Every structure is written in structure tokens, then in C-alpha cells.
Amino acid sequence: MEPIKVGIIGHGFMGHEHETMLTQMDEFQVVGITDRDLAQLEDVKEGILRYPSVEELLANPEIQVVLIVANNNQHLDLVTKAAKAGKDIICEKPAAMSVAELDEMVKVVSECGVKFTIHHQRRFDPDFRTIKEIYDQRTLGDVYTIKNQLYGFNGNMHDWHVYISEGGGMLFDWGVHLIDQVLWMIDSKITSVYATVKNVINFEVDDFFNIQLRFENGVQAEIELGTYYLKDQPNWFERHWFIGGNQGSAYVDGFHPTGKIVRTTGLLQNVGGSRTMTAAGPTRSFGNPREGLIVTEELPEVTTNHRNYFENYVRAYRGEEEFLVKIPEVRRVLALMEAIRESAKTGQAVPFE
To answer: What sign has the CA pseudo-torsion 80, 82, 84, 89?
Structure first.
């Protein structure tokens, strides 16, 4: 079967990542790459055309799919141009700077009859898929809390990410992924959102946020990121998941996940008018548990990676299955981000859905 022929718009870090990934897959052929900074094209792999402008790349009739990897504030313009050129589109996240922009994109791709989806490859992160497997299988019974956290030490944004006008900041960067993971996992409406968003050491853009979501099914989810959130603990500056249910808890740490499912072998019995003594005092749950009370189980094994995103894309493109990332899901994330910014501005919880 003929490979899908791709043109890449933008050859920064992620543009290079896409070039590397797609040139390793027989199902794709990268035909050409463009970047407004021509120096970025100097290391394009041999055999791939280098275009000095978006217009020249889009004029190539051989290119079927355009992969947009430009600054966030350019997405609407580039999606519009690609759609009007008759190209199917994969756009980097965040799809747009606002819900209104995404709605404009949906209108133009619909009018032009082209395929359109968003690159949310972190739905295949092993740490996320591990915690999702625990949640999906009800391993912990009724889940009441989920925490999705990412911490760093360097603090500062870089390149265009330092500018609000370019769509910079961590909410638009990692925040989109962390939010998308939680919303894709928890199949329930959100009743309210309360958020704090700060620029701790950056002048314009956010580098810390804490987002608290209440779901209709009773789950409370917390999403927190800090680029300058320091702790002298090994492997602290990575991913951290915690999930709690009425039959135990689980923690998953790191991009290459480690952790455990944790349970107790017995609970104190609640007896009205009676005092039960423990090593920590009467009926206390705090302090060191007695030996044998806390037991652990291994995490489920998952074998996902970011290549799986493009494997799904190929099958969906050929009509064999649906695209994993659906535009209404993307719109929901953007709408929630707008509610997050409103809550952070007003200091109030915001009703949602």
C-alpha cells in the first residue's frame, strides 16, 4: 500500500521529532518541510524537499497531509491555508488559542472537506496508560481522588514560549496534555473547576498552576504543574500520579513508570461508644502502621508509546477505524482551559457542564 505523503510546517524541536518519527515508519513519506527560519532547514534529512515558504509547500500536489508544528498563535492561519489547499491536517496541540478559533478551524475544514485531527500523542504515555488501566479496571473500587502532577527545576520558559501573544506559557504547553489525559480517562461531566495560575519567575507567562476538578461521578481530580517547584528527592522532577479508591490506592512515578498498588490487610472496626487502642493512640489512622498492615501489588504492565498515535492515524486515514483524537474532545479541553483562566482571575470556582 502506498505511504501517506506528508509535508511538515515548522522545524523546531517538535518538527524534528515528527521528521524522525515519520521517516522511521513505512506508512509515511515525508515529502517536504518548511520553516520561516530558513536556518532550521539546514539539517533536514536527505531526500526531503526544503521549502522557503508555506505557500510553496502547499502548492505541491504530491503532499496529502500537512502536519502543523508552528507557534500556537499561527495555527488558525495555517489550518485555514492548508484546508483551502485541499490538504488533510494534523495540528499540534493546543489546537487553537481559544474555543472561538477552533470553531473557525472546524468550519473551514468542513467546507473544504478535509480530514482534521490534533496531535495528542501523550494519550499513549506509559505512566498515563498505567493509571488509566487501574481506573478502567476498577482495581481500587470506587475512586474518589486522582492527582496528575509534573514538576521541574529550571523554571524559565524559552524561545517563543515566553510571550503571551505567541501562545506561550505552561498551561498552553504541558497543561493541555495533563488536562486531556484526565478528561479522556474520566467518563463523566465536570460540575465545577477551581484553579490557581501564576507566573512565579517568568515575566509574562504562567509557570505554575493548580487545577481542581469536580466530576459528576464523585471523582475529585487535581492537576498541578510547577517549573520551579523544588524538592531534594530522587526523580522528583518528573511525572507523578496518585489515585485513591475505597479498596486501596496506587502511585505511578516517572515517564518510565515505577510505583505500586497499595492496600491494607484490615481496617479498624467502628464501634459506637467503644475505644480501640492502636500504637499511635485511640482509633488513629496516622503514624507508622503495624507490620503487615500495608501490602503492595505490582502495577499493571502497559506497552504503549508515541508511535501508536501515528499507527492509529494511518488506520483511521484509510477508513479502518476512527481517529483517536476527536475534535469535540479537543474543544472540551479548550473550553475548560478558558474556565480555568476565569477561575484563576476571579478566585472563584466556576460551574462547568
So the answer is: negative
